[in-house]
Amino acid sequence: EAQVTQNPRYLITVTGKKLTVTCSQNMNHEYMSWYRQDPGLGLRQIYYSMNVEVTDKGDVPEGYKVSRKEKRNFPLILESPSPNQTSLYFCASSLSPGRDYGYTFGSGTRLTVV
Amino acid sequence: AQTVTQSQPEMSVQEAETVTLSCTYDTSENNYYLFWYKQPPSRQMILVIRQEAYKQQNATENRFSVNFQKAAKSFSLKISDSQLGDTAMYFCAFMRGGGATNKLIFGTGTLLAVQP
Questions:
Q1: DSSP code string of B23-71
Q2: What are the backbone angles phi and psi of residue B32, rounded to the nearest 5°?
């Protein structure tokens, strides 16, 4: 089944403790992206990647890192999480940028930072 | 910069009735795509319908249709014969065509409740 797999689904952590949210897709998509969803703000792009070793900042990149060492994986790293990063996170992938080939979203990660 | 505005934070409709969700956007681009996504309580993001800006014909998917007014920069979603399973948050989204980022720009969402 074609899908984007995110883990974990829920995560509670403490301020300053490094964490990684994993994202993997099995569709050979070039383009991958991370969004965060906050009430009253909709979804906002954090980082995106157009292909292996090619990443760039989205609209709200502060406090996050990403890497794209393999085509299928695009982890989101919070080096020192803070409470304002409490949010619902989505990973998404698309065949390639420039045209709408359709997005596939992961099932989301609910992160709480205390 | 592009923006997407959904002015109805919450709406309610009776089962089997019709409801229209509003969305306006701002862009200077000519090549773009517009989308409606549904997010049920399971929080999965589900594509409901998409519209390519260069197509004048309004998109339709079963009970879902859009009213795309390009000059007015309006993209409303009509749900006919509403069902309980339509209860969800609905997001309007914009994507520039031909760009390098494929970034989706989302509105703030409309929470739709379908009442039995």
A1: -EEE-S-SSEEEEEEEE-TT---EEEEEEETT--SPPEETTEEEEEETT
A2: -160, 170
CB B39 within 8 A of CB B45: yes
At A77-101, the pLDDT tens digits run 999 999 999 999 999 998 876 666 6
Check residue A105 and give its pLDDT. Answer: 95
Task: Tell me how far CA of residue B23 lies from CA of A36, A76, B9, B34, B114, in angstroms.
Answer: 21, 31, 11, 10, 19
Residue B103 with chain A: CB contacts under 8 Å: 33, 45, 48, 58-59
Which chain B residues have a beta carbon less than 8 Å from that of A45? 101, 103-104
pLDDT tens digits for range B81-111: 999 999 999 999 999 887 667 789 999 999 9
Distance from B98 to chain A by nearest Cα, in Å? 4
Q: How far apart are the two ends of chain A, measured CA to CA in Å?
A: 36
Residues paired with residue B65 on neighbouring β-strands, in sequence order: B60, B78
